[in-house]
Amino acid sequence: MLTTNTIEQTYYVIDFDSTFTQVEGLDELANIALAGNPNREKVVQQIRDLTEKGMNGEMSFAEGLRSRIELLQANRSHIEALIDFLRTKISDSFVRNRAFLHDYSDSILIVSSGFKEFIVPIVTELGLKEENVYANTFTFDEDDNIIGVDENNVLSKDKGKVKLLESLHLEGDICAIGDGYTDYELRASGLATRFYAFTENVERKKVTDVADHVVPSLDEFLFLNNPSIA
């Protein structure tokens, strides 16, 4: 568990999709699951459009998540294929700064609206701790088909990241790093001290316009915060 007894502690709250990795996990899961389906391109684009609207703050996140899951048509076996794919899509600057991830793993939280099933295997391989990963989880039927999301998880709801961080009661400086509007909401709520719009993989004007800093890589973030780490 994270320790909260050091007032000067700095926590790094990092997004996963399009930040830690170059892609959106749920979009890519759909791409894998629908291989051979004649409607694959159309359905994947529908899911991508819903993802983009959610990341820009243009629609209810919870509504968009439910709609994407309904379109998904994926099985547990597809998640394994996705994990293999994501290993090749880790953001370049995160790979370069593997030492930072390992050395500061007690202070790094992955807070994502994505899913633990594919996030934990990726981030732990780069030195982060499974217990510091906060994300959604899928629900499955008896045939291991994905049928939904755990509705009891606050991250499945609107402003889920805010609710999650509130529940952790962290004391200290909190830096939020991500590419989406849900990451900015941590700053807007007053929970995060600063919000860094991460643009290595995607740049959203509605997000960069409200950021304290725009960082094109993890290297830039580390230079701004502690040159000795970079």
Please provide a written account of the structure.
With 230 residues, the chain is of the alpha/beta class. 45% of the residues lie in helices and 17% in strands. The strands form two sheets. The chain has a six-stranded parallel beta sheet, with helices on both faces. Strand 4 (138-140) and strand 5 form a beta hairpin.
Tell me the layout of helices and strands.
Blueprint: E1 10-14, H1 16-20, H2 25-33, H3 40-55, H4 61-72, H5 76-86, H6 92-96, H7 98-103, E2 108-115, H8 116-125, E3 133-136, E4 138-140, E5 146-149, H9 160-168, E6 173-178, H10 181-188, E7 194-198, H11 205-208, E8 213-215, H12 218-225
Parallel strand pairs: 1-2, 1-6, 2-3, 6-7, 7-8
Antiparallel strand pairs: 4-5
Provide key terms for this protein.
230 residues; alpha/beta; six-stranded parallel sheet; two-stranded antiparallel ribbon; 45% helix; globular
Low-confidence stretches: none
The neighbouring-strand order within the major sheet is 3-2-1-6-7-8
Ends distance: 26 Å
Q: Beta fraction of the residues? A: 15-25%
What is the H-and-E element order? EHHHHHHHEHEEEHEHEHEH
Q: Using DSSP, what is the number of strands? A: 8
Give a brief rundown of this model.
The protein is of the alpha/beta class and 230 residues long. It is built from 12 helices and 8 strands. Helix 2 packs antiparallel against helix 3, helix 3 (40-55) packs antiparallel against helix 4 and helix 9 crosses helix 10.
